[in-house]
Amino acid sequence: MTQHCGFVAIVGRPNVGKSTLMNRILGQKISITARRPQTTRHQVMGIKTEEDTQFVYVDTPGMHIQTRGRDKAINRFMNQAATHALRDIDCVIFIVDRTKWTEEDDVVLEKLSNVPAPVILAVNKVDWLEDKSSLLPWLDSVSKKREFAAVVPLSAKNGTNVPELEAEVAQRLPESVHYFSEDQITNKSERFLAAELVREKVMRQLGDELPYQMTVEIEEFKDDGKTLHISALILVERSGQKKILIGDQGERIKSIGREARLEMERAFDAKVMLNLWVKVKGGWSDDDRALKSLGYDLD
Questions:
Q1: pTM (two decimals)
Q2: If DSSP codes are grouped into helix, strand and coil, which group holds residue 274?
Q3: Mind listing the pLDDT tens digit for each residue in 191-247?
Q4: What is the rounded distance in angstroms from the CA atom of residue 62 to the CA atom of residue 283?
Q5: Rounded distance, CA 63 to CA 88, Å?
Q6: Which of 92, 127, 251, 253 gets the highest tally of CB atoms within 10 A of its CB?
């Protein structure tokens, strides 16, 4: 039986549903999601094997324009990570949000201009369109921006047309042996996922109150055979942010910990004992050395 395998980059501007799409395709959460843009900070691989075909999806940070307030080292890293994912790729899924084409979509389109791999345009959130009749003429106009291999309107959240998108991708994967075992679903460790789940709960609860200068570092990840013991350090840049995160009498951090623990127990299929700590580390998000020490490394 001839095998097919290839790398598929999922790209787009912030907050268009890249992580939601990958989680939908895989049938489980690999990439965290939140309503705020730029939730994804790393390249995250999601691996799906169906008989003789193996898809290696690469979720990427949203490509964005460097402006005042969005020009820190962490922002540069995210743009670099997204661009880096386009090297040696076999297919690209370029996601846009309904009929809203922005300047940042043009940034992504420009990045794709030198990519030899076929590009599939995925028009997400079409279930949100109030005027469905506006979709077809818009698809016709956007198809002229470049030669797309296919244009697929879909809803990553409810799964509409996602199988059709997967079929389009499958047609464009090269003949190749499979790179990963059939039961592997990601290249990231459970330790990485634990940190991301804590960060997701912080962003979901404090998205409008806490700026992006927050990250999570796992200090302990130990399995005693019955329980996973996880200690996570949440880093912020200012003492005021720490107070917001902890909340009145510690209620906010307790709520974040409770939600993260329940999600981890589902993800790891194990009982979890989670301890959270908050620490102020000024300037970490604009310090290349600090970012590398915290795992923000393209290598």
A1: 0.82
A2: strand
A3: 989 998 998 899 888 876 666 678 899 999 999 999 999 999 999 988 999 999 999
A4: 22
A5: 18
A6: 92
